[in-house]
Every structure is written in structure tokens, then in C-alpha cells.
Amino acid sequence: MTYTGNCDVYGAFHEDAINKVVHHVMHQRPSMFNYATFWFVEHLVELCKNIDAHSEVGLKNNPMITVEPLLPIVGTNYGLDFCLQVTELELDFHPSTNINLPPELNPPLKEQHLALRAKVCVGVACPDKDILDQYTTTEARPGGNDINDPGPRTALPIGKINCFCLEGIADCHVKMTGGPGAEEVSIALDGFEIVDIKPEGLENALECYIATTLRLAVLSKFKLALDFLTLTIEQIPMGLSLKPTPISPDVEFNPSVADDQLAVFMDLEVAP
Amino acid sequence: MTEVTLAVSEAAFTNLFEGVRDNFTASKSDSKDFGALTAAYNVGVRLENGTVDMRDDNTVLIKELDIVYDPLSLTLGLDIPSICVGGQCILPTPWGCAIRLPRICVFESDPDIEVPINLDGVIRSEISGSFEVVPRHESDPGRLAAMSDLDAHLAGVPDKWNFYLDPEWLDIDVIDIADTVGNILDNAVDWIVDTLFGWLPSWARDLVDAILGGLVSVVRAILDFGDDVSEWLSDLFNVSFGLFDFIVTLVADYFAKQYPLFGFEEPLPLPIPNNGLNPILIPITDVTIAVSNTEAVITADVGA
């Protein structure tokens, strides 16, 4: 079997390799997967799920968490501490073997598609009722009553952290993005489904929120730059670069998702 | 089951080889004393051209890789036996000699003369060889034992997977010594004769010429050119200086140990933005390479 019959350079990454890379990213850059208010930075043990971080994260003073503002209590200047953690993320390239698509995503997984499973845990710090009673006697919006500007929010005292976890499955495909010379292989999310949540509107809202978070906060950072090899391999002569092999009857998909792996076909380009 | 596969066509492999080839430079100087003749040379060597032929037996055949000798300078030093002429008494008196011919001694130094000869581009030779592509996991010598992988990466001394061309055999072939070398060396002989003897008065020059049996022939005899100047030059560099063996050893060592065909850091930094945070390092294990007549296929796994 010849890999380079229709290209100069061929790269293929099995789903096991990609999932190990995802694990390394979660381990070495936890702030990409863990979002919470500042209170949790000093109370990591209170998170819904303990962060399993590489020792270098602490040694180099890298953050465990990306800090987010308080969850607003509408109509007030108060807010609640909360955390949102992507605790599991797994990919399964066509044909699907590890992740079963739910009926809402029209199984089986289509050719050239990949399934993505994500587990998200959310915790909201709920104030004790007794303490909360004290706040009902004070002005709810002490900074004023400007409905267009709530001003800085004040965290309510923390009582119990209420955690829940949701598991969702996504149907995705890969695509080539970026302009000439800056092509990247990125993951596009076609559909996301959380199973067994009622009412349907709540399910849809949560699916929308989690899918948007995955798209913008996680998947947008998982891109494979096509010049990865030229950046990685120091010995590639000056003036040489890689460009995607054009689609043709011989290369029907580029990138291609098949046989449990992601494959990329590239041609060498000599600078004029 | 292979986790990562990277295949490189013969054309792309050739591009990588050309990068390694063009990075090769070497220089050497040496001198030898052959009695009446001393020879010293200074050479700079680079590689050009060459064809890459990947083969099904997991080897790469590289043919007609030109060795370019530029610069190549040869300095010849001649030690001619001392000769003194004149000094005879032309007006003897009872009290001794009143007038003597001036006494002139020549060739009292060692060497008496040194002539630099520019041989840039005169010698053409080429190397051919069969190579196995060998992956090696190498630690940077600058890496301290206490360094973590991240510290080593940040300090610019990470471990690497490097792929070398390890020669199974390597031959050098002296293709040609340009015909112009005859003229170059003839001109050198003329220059030596002019420099050595041109300043002498004509009578002394004739006398020395008579004593030595021909100035040009004595210089050529010391240089020992023989009938074939090209062969003389080839023997000088090959046999006396061992230059060609040195180059073969140097090229073999360069491809096999010094300059990899390609390589990458291990653990491999993931090419995503860091924004001041630790780079994400991915361990790469079980690296292999297999060569066929159409492509080189690298396989690897992602470490846990």
C-alpha cells in the first residue's frame, strides 16, 4: 500500500492518538477545560471534579482555572459563585466503534464524520437560607437602580455547592480552514445532544450552551496547522512549504476521516 | 495498530536530503616533508548534486554526489642543494690574491622557495553509497540531569528524535583532474625558476644551469612530476595526504551522526497558542521508519 501515490507527504492520526493528545492537553492545560469564579481558585477542592493536573502546572504557576464573573442574580447586584468543567472529551472517527450516536443525531455515524463525547460538570454555590434571609432586609441593588448598568456584583456567601454532570454526544466533521499558506484542519460541530433531559426547551437551551462552549472555548483551539511539519522539523530546507493536495478523483477528501483515523494529504511547494 | 503514520514520497525525501547535503561544509589543512620537497594544502569541501534512489530493501542509494574542492590551495616548497659559484682568484700576487671573482652562494635556505598554487575546481570527485535511515532518540548534551522535559524545552535543550543516513558502504571516485593542472604546474615551475634564478647575473645563471644540468629539469626532478602531472597530483592528495579517505570518513560521519535528515523534539510541543502558559508537550514513542522504492513511512505512538 502506497500512501504518497497522489501527494508528497501523508499524515494519519488514529483516534487513539488524538484521544491521548486530548488527555495530555487536559492534564497540562487545565484552564482550557475548567471555568469558575475566583472563589474556586482558592478552593479547588470544592470543584465538582478534582483537577488532575501535570505537576509542571503548579510548579510554573500556570492557572488551574479560567476565572469567570459571578453568575448574576437577576435584578440585583449580587451573584453566585459557580464552576463549569469539561471533565471528559473523547473522539471517535468513522466508523464509530466507541461512541454510539443517540437517535436524535441519526445514527449510524456518516462517512467522513466523527463522533465526540463530552462530559460537563456544573456547580453552583447556593447560599444558606438563613444567611440569605439577612440579605432580603437590605437593598437588593445597593449601587442604584440603573437598569442598564448593574455595576459590580457582590458574591453571596457560599453555602452548599450543588453539582450536576451532563454527558453529551456530538456529530462532527473536519474541514480545511484558513487562507492559502495558513491552512488548518479544524473540527466543525454539526449537532449536539444531551440525552434524557426534560422539558425539551431546557434540553435545547443546555445543548445550545454546551455546544457553543465546546465550539468557542475548546474545539477552536484544537486545530492542526498544515505547516505543522515545517514548523516542527527543523531540517526542512528554506523555501519549502506544505500545501493541501487539491481534491481530485484520487484524493476525494482532504482532510479525510475514515478507518478510525484522520488523514491529511499535502504537497510540497517550492517558493518561487 | 499504528497511532501516527507519516509518509514522505521520494521527491519529498530528496528535498530533505538536499537540505542536509547543502549544509555540509568541511575544511582541512596538512603538510608533509618529502626531503627536498615540502607540500602543504588547505582545502574547503562542499557537496553538490547527487541522485536519491529509495529501494525496497529498506535502504537509500545516493549516487554521483559531487565533492567540490573550493578553495583548494597547494603550497610547494623546494629545498635545492646549496651551490656556490665564483670566488676564484683572477689576480694572484706573492702576497695572496689581489682580485677574486665574486662568490655567490644560492639555495642556502630550507625551503629555498615556496610557491602557492591555486587549484580551485581542478579536482572533480564524487561519492556514492548505500544508506539505511536510522531513527535515534538523542539527549541534548546541554541538558542537565535535573531538568524536566518542560525545563529542557524552555532552555532550548530538548531531547529529539533524529533520523540519520547511516552508510552501509561509501565509495569515493576521483572522476577527473582537469587538463589545466598541467599548465598550472608548468607555470609554477617557470615561476620557481624565475624567482630562484632570475636575479642572478647571466654568467652565474649559466654556470648554475650547467652545474645542475638544466634549471627547469632540476625543479621538475625535485617535484617528481613524472610523465603524468594529474597522476602526481592525485597521488599527492590521495596517498601522501590521505585526503580522499578523510573526506569519505567525514561524509559518513556527517550523515550518520552529525546532521540528521530530519528530526523533531520529544516530547513534541503541540502547535497551539500558549499565551504565556506552559507549552503542551506530547511524548512520542516507538518511532520506526521503513523505506520502499516509492516512499519512506514513519510510524510512531503517542505516549501515555
Describe the structure.
The complex is a heterodimer of chains A (272) and B (304). Chain A has 6 helices and 14 strands. Chain A is an alpha+beta fold and 272 residues long. Chain A has one domain (9-140, 148-270): Bactericidal permeability-increasing protein, domain 2 (Super Roll), CATH 3.15.20. A 7-stranded mixed sheet of chain A has the order 3-2-6-7-9-10-11. In chain A, strands 1, 12, 13 and 14 form a 4-stranded antiparallel sheet that branches. Chain A has a 3-stranded mixed sheet with strand order 4-5-8, with no helix packed on it. In chain A, strand 9 and strand 10 (184-194) form a beta hairpin. The mean pLDDT of chain A is 87. Chain B has 7 helices and 16 strands. Chain B has helices at residues 10-22, 149-154, 180-197, 202-212, 215-223, 229-240, 243-258; strands at 4-9, 25-33, 37-54, 59-78, 83-85, 89-93, 96-100, 104-106, 113-118, 123-138, 159-177, 262-266, 268-269, 281-282, 284-291, 295-302. In chain B, strands 2, 3, 4, 9, 10, 11 and 12 form a 7-stranded antiparallel sheet that branches. In chain B, helix 3 (180-197) packs across helix 5. The longest helix of chain B has 18 residues, at 180-197. The model of chain B has no long low-confidence stretch (mean pLDDT 88). Chain A binds chain B through residues 2-5, 7-14, 16-17, 20-21, 24-25, 28-29, 31, 56-57, 60, 62-63, 221-225, 228-229, 231-237, 240, 268, and chain B through 1-9, 11-12, 15-16, 18-20, 22, 148, 150, 259-265, 268, 270-273, 277-278, 280-283, 292, 294-295, 297, 301-304. Strand 1 (9-14) of chain A pairs antiparallel with strand 1 (4-9) of chain B, so a sheet runs across the interface.
